[in-house]
Design brief:
Blueprint: H1 2-39, H2 57-63, H3 66-98, H4 104-116, H5 119-130, H6 136-142, H7 158-183, H8 187-195, H9 200-211, H10 213-229, H11 232-237, H12 249-259, H13 263-288
């Protein structure tokens, strides 16, 4: 009897400890998600005119919205450009600063510094780099006799210029996770590989990298999510232009909701964004998790 009472009290204690976190998660995550999904089936309220249930009308309009398909394509290209590149650079930087290197602490700080800078500050720094004629990039190009280039004003280069900024900002953040994972690898594995005459590349390919796969999964999932939510630099650098060439899905949602005040359609776009992120995240877990070795 006493054991049963103690077990029930432990359950009550556990639920009491979880309740504050559950309230915050439900109030700021689950409830807004459900509310947004519900609002996607309604029109936008105007003044005294309340929202009207429109069914799938917003979703039907979305399928015919050329701007939506443009920003969706931009976001997919943005993800393809930022995710693998930032992950690979982060891994390379972690391998470099994890070895015996003079000034290793300074190099780690230098690689991580862009991460702690606000995105608005980062965007303004790169605005100086991209300024036609006077920017750092064009100043270097002029040394080789190359003409000036309006990187952010040219539809062919605007998205690529934004991708470079995102990689510069994100790689140092992901490097920290790889560096921690590398330092957790037992030293005796490297010693055993050296005794067997294995090269550094062979040790990395057959021992270190498989042990880094849990970190790679974590980093890649976060990189995909970040590629759909990094939008601050778009505000400062291009405002989605020229002609939506650098506009991303979250920026289009912001414009729709707060600039054009089409909250019903913005809710529909948000539902699509959440569904896409869910598909990508779950797909990564199913495809990659089976190949991961957990120690």
């Amino acid at each position: 009897m006493r054991n049963t009472i103690n077990l029930r009290l432990s359950w009550v204690n556990a639920w009491l400890l979880l309740t504050p976190a559950m309230i915050l998660v439900i109030g700021f995550t689950h409830f807004p998600a459900v509310k947004t999904f519900w609002n996607s089936f309604f029109s936008t309220p105007r003044g005294k005119r309340p929202a009207v249930f429109t069914g799938l009308e917003n979703y039907h309009y979305l399928l015919q919205d050329d701007i939506f398909w443009t920003v969706l394509k931009n976001n997919l290209l943005f993800s393809l450009g930022t995710v693998p590149t930032s992950v690979c650079i982060a891994l390379a930087m972690a391998l470099w600063v994890n070895g015996k290197l003079h000034g290793r602490g300074f190099m780690r700080m230098a690689f991580f510094t862009p991460t702690v800078l606000p995105l608005i500050a980062v965007a303004n720094i790169w605005l100086f780099y991209y300024t036609p004629g006077f920017g750092l990039i064009d100043q270097i190009r002029s040394l080789f006799g190359l003409p000036e280039q309006n990187w952010l004003g040219n539809p062919d280069y605007a998205l690529a210029a934004v991708i470079v900024v995102a990689i510069w900002k994100e790689a140092g953040f992901f490097m920290v996770f790889y560096l921690a994972a590398l330092q957790s690898i037992p030293p005796n594995l490297r010693e055993a590989a050296q005794l067997e005459g294995a090269s550094s590349w062979y040790f990395f390919r057959r021992v270190a990298f498989p042990l880094l796969m849990p970190t790679t999964l974590f980093v890649s999932v976060n990189a995909v999510i970040n590629s759909f939510r990094l939008v601050d630099h778009i505000f400062v650098m291009t405002e989605g232009g020229p002609n939506n060439a650098s506009s991303l899905l979250l920026f289009y949602i912001y414009e729709t909701a707060f600039k054009f005040w089409e909250t019903g359609y913005a809710a529909t776009l948000t539902v699509v964004l959440v569904v896409l992120l869910s598909i990508f995240s779950v797909g990564q877990f199913f495809l990659v998790d089976k190949r991961i070795h957990y120690r």
